[in-house]
Protein 1
Amino acid sequence: MNTLLSASAASQPGHGSDSISDRSGQVLAIRGGRPLTGRVEVKGAKNLATKAMVAALLGETVSVLRDVPDISDVKVVRSLLEVHGVTVDDDGEGVLRLDPSGAVSAHMEEIDAHAGASRIPILFCGPLLHLLRQAFIPDLGGCRIGDRPIDFHLSALRAFGATVDKLPSGIRLSAPQGLHGADITLPYPSVGATEQVLLTAVRAKGTTELRNAAIEPEIMDLIAVLQKMGAIISYEPNRVIFIEGVDSLRGYDHRCIFDRNEAASWACAALATDGDIFVGGAKQQEMLTFLNVFRKAGGDFDIAEDGIRFRRGGDLKPVVVETDVHPGFMTDWQQPLIVALTQAHGTSTVHETVYENRLGFTRALNQMGADIVVHPEGIASDERRVPRRALEQAAVINGPTPLHGADVVVPDLRGGYSYVIAALAAEGESTVRNVEIIRRGYEKFLDKLTALGADFDVIG
Ligand code: UD1
């Protein structure tokens, strides 16, 4: 039997702050055509909180992590830590207390059951190798973990002295003699592989030099966490990071950096729906590149002490954007931006260079009336970036095109958010299925939509 819960009913007093989000709202009926207006708060970054939680495994004492978002990716990491014997207490206000003193090896089935489709288990490798001299990561080659490769991670772990055996059931790693420092050059500044190296090198014997490292703000925040724990890490401006291994690390007390991806998502929602959204907790410095594109696309913003207000500054204008590693335009920003660009006067181009398959979500936008053509090989001839990615893609967006309601299925986190925003910008009613996925990265998502005046029902 379908439960029907209207947004306005759920926002009545007494429902609690995440009254809707806690229900299994997998299907939304959204009535569009209303600007989103109001204030939302962003908490700590998903892309830092989950890694800082893993770092707690390296400490000999309790760690405290603040501003942790209530999202399902955090729950996955928490479960994985718990199956490894870490005690995790949650005060219900975004403060986690992580006690690693009982850390143990976990059974493969338990890791498998708790990890789900997440790639996070790969980041447990270094800390587990230091702690237990062995680690097992189930099923990494299969579709459960997605198509994204982990070759950089595995060759870095081998460089630290780990033995890596690929088995049909997963990957077994061992380092009976412990790990030593290494000279590593990443083929591409991968965020995950850089984190892998950091989480492994801090306790390895000797010095590690990492070249072509990712330098995203969340990585810098992870370095701050590790320094609080006793690590010695320095970096040069040319993507080189030096880590001097130490014998032991203690726990940390840290407030997560804000989630700039969520902030950019709400900014694009204001642009797409012609709304006016104040994003509490957003900061200018980490969003400089986004803000430039937002302004060029016809957006306007005011920077305040406690956040950023986003709205249109006039007609939306076409832009040419290429996603890139930091300090470039982040790949997670392009999906919500594309929804807004369907309303720009002219032809925009978004060239995805970080991932091979992050433009598939545009098919559903075309179903809603957009005019987006995806060129599988990419169309830009930009020789600045070396090395070039093999299979780049570009989306050409012709606007403005009125959007209308459709029945769509959420494909992934950012694509899913974009469908909801498109449905809210569209005339008529849309059905958006599989909304659960959006909770991987957006805290209290439905409550925030309600606070912004969105008109929707949770059905099924
Ligand atoms: C992280 C972020 C994600 C963001 C991405 C790029 C988290 C939880 N997720 O993902 O939101 O979009 O950074 O900023 O922090 N690659 C390889 N081999 C590897 C590892 C990566 O070829 O071993 C490739 C990937 O296929 C991809 C590119 O490198 O094309 C970038 O991936 P990476 O930076 O590692 O992304 P994640 O850490 O998975």
Note: Residues 47, 148-153, 188, 190-193, 214, 330-332, 354-355 surround uridine-diphosphate-N-acetylglucosamine (CB under 6 Å).
Protein 2
Amino acid sequence: MNTPIRKGTFLVTGASSGIGAVYAERLARRGHDLVLVARDAARLGVLAAKLTAETGRDVGVLIADLTFKADVHRVEDRLYNDAKITGLVNNAGVGGSAKLIDSDPDELEALIDINVVALTRLASAAARGFVERGGGTIVNIASIVALAPELLSGAYSGSKAYVVNFSQSMHGELADKGVRVQAVLPGVTVTDFWDKTGVPVAHLPKEWAMCAGEMVDAALAGLDQGEVITIPSLPDIADWNAYEAARKALGPGLSRQHAAERYRLGEQQAA
Ligand code: NAP
């Protein structure tokens, strides 16, 4: 049976634009109060005022640059200590499309700081708070590139593969403690992300691109259905289930006392 999603306040990171702004709007319409997190104070202020006027919900703003440790700590404190918070949408993130040898190492580090380090710290603070408070919901925004390292940059797809593994492990650890965990793997979604990543969305095949509203509605439907992994575009869930079954079938062979036969050539030659 699915643990129902508790009313209460959701903290949404990266709420100043794109997918995060749509989550904020949809969650407010579902009756949740909100804490909106991002760097752009003006955009957050406009969205908060609009959502309060339209839905009557209490919408607060927390300005933070999630590549700055002190700012991440402030958001962690809020998640852990504010008893009204029952949900986290760990959405803030940046992309990358440059080849590794053409990439600025400081930009790669900043990508990992926001997509991996901040996401992990915020999930950890929320998980501790939610367990102490008797439950909660954590949504981690990954990407289909977690399953497709051939697309975009290795650092970006690697950061999103981390989010998938991390979320599956979190689910295993927290499900019996009343904490719901979902990883969402959007495909191409029409937001400012693509201009910032250096690949205008208009240059991509139109049949790949979903509007952010449809993507978030599908992700919330997956959350309502109790999914741990939601891939909004994937037509047949049986394909994901087969992928997971194949991964789990590797289990008995992954750690053994002796190397596989094909790696014991030296031994055979010496004999
Ligand atoms: P977006 O419109 O560019 O939104 C990114 C959000 O992250 C903004 O609100 C931005 O706010 C925030 N952000 C960026 N750097 C930040 C920082 N240093 N500190 C705090 N907040 C920061 O892109 P989006 O498409 O909505 O992306 C949202 C998430 O979806 C990301 O994790 C992305 O990887 C993932 N995703 C997107 C797609 C897609 O096709 N669009 C596909 C798969 C996954 P400020 O600039 O105001 O700080």
Note: Residues 14-20, 38-40, 64-67, 91-95, 114, 141, 143, 186, 188-189, 191-193, 196 surround NAP (CB under 6 Å).
